[in-house]
Amino acid sequence: MDIDPTHVPTDNKAQVLRGCDFLAWSADTEERFDRVVGNPPYLSFRRLPPELREVALRVRQPDGERISGNANCWLAFLCSAVRLLRQGGALGFVLPAAWEYADYAQSLRNYFCKSFEDIEVHRCSRPLFELVQEGSIVLIGKGYLKSPLSFQRFLHTTPKALISALNGPSQRSPLGRNAVSKTKVSGNRQIRQLKEIMEIRLGGVTGDAGYFLLSEKQRREHRLPVTCLRPVLSKAQHLPGSELTSKAWLTLRDSGARVWLFRPPPSLLTHPHIAAYLILGKNRPAGHKVSRRTPWYQTPLPRSCDGFLSGMSSAGPWIALRVMPRLIATNTLYIIRFLKRYSLDERAAWALAMLTSEVRTQWQEVRRVYAAGLAKLEPGDLGRLLLPEPHRVSGARKVLGEATAALLDGNAARASEIADGWFRDRRRQNAVRA
Ligand SMILES: C[S@@+](CC[C@H](N)C(=O)[O-])C[C@H]1O[C@@H](n2cnc3c(N)ncnc32)[C@H](O)[C@@H]1O
């Protein structure tokens, strides 16, 4: 079915209905199908003529929700196609890569995960079509309205490899010629974008690290009371493992690292040693960032902090949870804040999700590689990572400790094995709800 009345040579490959608006037709028809295959237009709703836009916006998502005005035509086509399926039916759609991360597709992604027995996402690292620069995926959902069983994600290097993988299960070897990587999540069907679960921000920008960051020895030399300082992490190497406890920080302090951030509260400015240190600061060649802020001696810091993440790491992104109160980080690290109040075990379960092979595959796809093999991840890239939702919580801290220790030991494969094992277990205790 195509709204375009012009015949094309490939029309002889099927029974083609031209000049028919699929969105209007699918809303009316009582027919239901075993298979629906589509290659919908990728056109933002904003660029549609008003009358077509109106039809597209009338389409409801399968869960009854309205489609956002920011969405794209493909979403309306996909929602309409799902409506046409019989129970047990299957659907195959060619979609833009945005299927995996667009906010406006979140609710349909969740619906898919709950409503199909098997889901396959085939992503190609090269464009599938000459005229479409954007990355594409092929989404396959089988067993409509049957119990969710598996979710697999394949990353193919070429369109040819993608097509041959679609041609038959025998060719779909996990790490064989066709797919450079494959992720399988069984028994766990809820996938969340990282930005739905946590916020990632840069740590504090001091503007003058030589002045604002102090070691314990320097603190004593200047006789500064601890009340004018915040315990701080200023290097990725300061992340000792899965948890930042007071004990871990004390070890860092005693090793001579710069672990204090000078940040006096207004009530202490007249304290003689603090006042003397402030004068020292005023006499330094004021950095641009320092002189611009008010008051200049207070490094702006995120309101709250649940953990730390290194944006530049050869080990890949991993989260160290903050256990020590008041501990904060400078901008060599990212600070994470969970958007809901989670227990420490719940936080650990989400941190474990970061270490699953599923997430590490995505990271390898999006990272920007710098000198010496260092890979940098921007908060936006991180926010789009798709995390499996943990279905159990109890004991997650211990497992996270083991997985993180393996990662820091250089054994990333073992770290993922431990994390995957945690997610494979189908026992559902204390489900963490996002
Ligand atoms: C990406 S092309 C796919 C073309 C062809 N089906 C294929 O796979 O080669 C998208 C097609 O959707 C058609 N189209 C756009 N809006 C439509 C609508 N409301 N109903 C049916 N077809 C539509 C366009 O004419 C265009 O041919």
Count of β-strands: 19
Radius of gyration based on Cα positions? 26 Å
The level of helicity is: 25-40%
| Uncertain parts | 170-181, 185-189, 426-434
Using the coordinates shown, work out and report the CATH topology of the largest domain.
Answer: Adenine-n6-DNA-methyltransferase TaqI, Chain A, domain 2
Largest sheet: 6 strands, mixed
Structural class, by secondary structure, is: alpha+beta
Account of the protein in words:
This protein is of the alpha+beta class. The chain has two domains: 9-188, Rossmann fold, CATH 3.40.50; 197-219 and 231-261 and 298-424, Adenine-n6-DNA-methyltransferase TaqI, Chain A, domain 2. The protein is built from 16 helices and 19 strands. It has helices at 22-28, 50-58, 73-83, 106-115, 159-166, 194-197, 209-212, 216-221, 246-254, 272-282, 288-292, 344-355, 357-366, 379-383, 396-408, 412-424, and strands spanning 33-38, 85-96, 116-124, 136-144, 150-156, 179-186, 191-193, 198-202, 213-215, 229-233, 243-244, 258-262, 307-309, 319-322, 328-329, 334-338, 368-369, 375-376, 386-388. Strand 17 (368-369) and strand 18 form a beta hairpin. It is elongated, with a radius of gyration of 26 Å. Bound molecules: S-adenosylmethionine.
